[in-house]
Here is the input.
Amino acid sequence: MAAPGSRVLWSYCGWGCSRLIRTGGPQWLHSSLRAGSLGVRLLSQAKQATETHFGFETVSEEEKGGKVYQVFESVAKKYDLMNDMMSLGIHRVWKDMLLWKMNPLPGTQLLDVAGGTGDIAFRFLNYVQEQYQRKQKRQLKAQQNLSWEEIAKKYQNEDDPLGGSRVMICDINREMLKVGQKKAFDQGYKAGLAWVLGDAEELPFDDHKFDIYTIAFGIRNVTHIDQALQEAHRVLKPGGRFLCLEFSQVNNPLISRLYDLYSFQVIPVLGEVVAGDWKSYQYLVESIRKFPSQEEFKEMIEDAGFQKVTYESLTSGIVAIHSAFKL
Ligand SMILES: COc1cc(O)cc(C/C=C(\C)CC/C=C(\C)CC/C=C(\C)CC/C=C(\C)CC/C=C(\C)CC/C=C(\C)CC/C=C(\C)CC/C=C(\C)CC/C=C(\C)CCC=C(C)C)c1O
Ligand SMILES: C[S@@+](CC[C@H](N)C(=O)[O-])C[C@H]1O[C@@H](n2cnc3c(N)ncnc32)[C@H](O)[C@@H]1O
Here is the structure.
């Protein structure tokens, strides 16, 4: 049963992932969506009326999803600009580092959860295209007696320039996806990417679908992180890799003090001036402080069934990249 005021739509994508997705008011996510498949769990949760946090505020689990939705609905149009301003462009380097760590091969099927405006997906497409072109050049150089037609065909990229790689961007927020789709259109990304509205806690994909799962600056916003991690494990193929870029714990006391000052004194002001939204940026800095440390998050990933869990702290631990495998 759909919640009152919710809309129901079928999302279809080329990977055979048609599933029901519901959208609507704040209740749709954390109550009605699960009513079918996880009704029993929901009932026991409802009895306990579990509380969680939204930044430094204590809220019920049912409320949190709606509040997070409102934050990203409100900031979507200014999201990319704000990231460049807040980090002086450093977030781009972090995202590049995620791609270097991933080092995807042509043919990789990537699922980018909480993919928002597509930063990780576009980097992925650039990376695999470059890899594929290099590989083709190497092969061409190694082959003798090729006709000029064969050489021309390869150089004109008549076959798939991505070598079969695909990225699926999944996000719960329609406005973030809209901004991402416009960006893709403006920047000329056409092939190899698909956009799907969906919840990290209940991914609209079959089991064992993807080679790599990424989530960048997304998992901090999810109500049940353990559930999102289990979903990541479910949709990955055996041998698949989980990669998460997220804010973490700063390990240098001096940087930590400066970072706190910057976070609480500057970021909400920037949010107000640039995006007209102090509260969303207050939520950002508070949610960063609520997120588990590198070691704690590593344990959570292990608890979800992943193996070979490692992490690398970047910029003194302001962010960390966690990597894990489904073996
Ligand atoms: C709603 O949820 C969201 C919305 C979003 O738009 C985005 C996200 C997800 C987030 C991202 C994708 C990335 C967002 C980036 C950040 C939150 C920023 C991360 C921060 C940094 C990379 C810089 C870290 C800063 C420090 C270690 C401290 C340095 C700070 C200072 C020297 C200034 C100290 C501040 C004061 C004393 C307060 C008073 C100062 C002023 C009024 C002057 C203003 C100063 C500045 C604007 C300078 C800022 C300097 C830097 C950024 C340079 C940092 C350089 C290095 C660390 C090398 C989302 O979830
Ligand atoms: C800070 S943005 C990150 C966007 C992008 N990955 C990046 O690195 O720029 C966080 C994103 O997480 C999405 N999000 C929050 N909760 C989610 C959930 N339960 N399932 C899927 N996406 C979610 C938001 O809609 C938003 O687009």
In short: The domain at 74-325 is CATH 3.40.50.150 (Rossmann fold). The first strand starts at residue 7 and ends at 11. Residues 119-142 form the longest helix (24 residues).
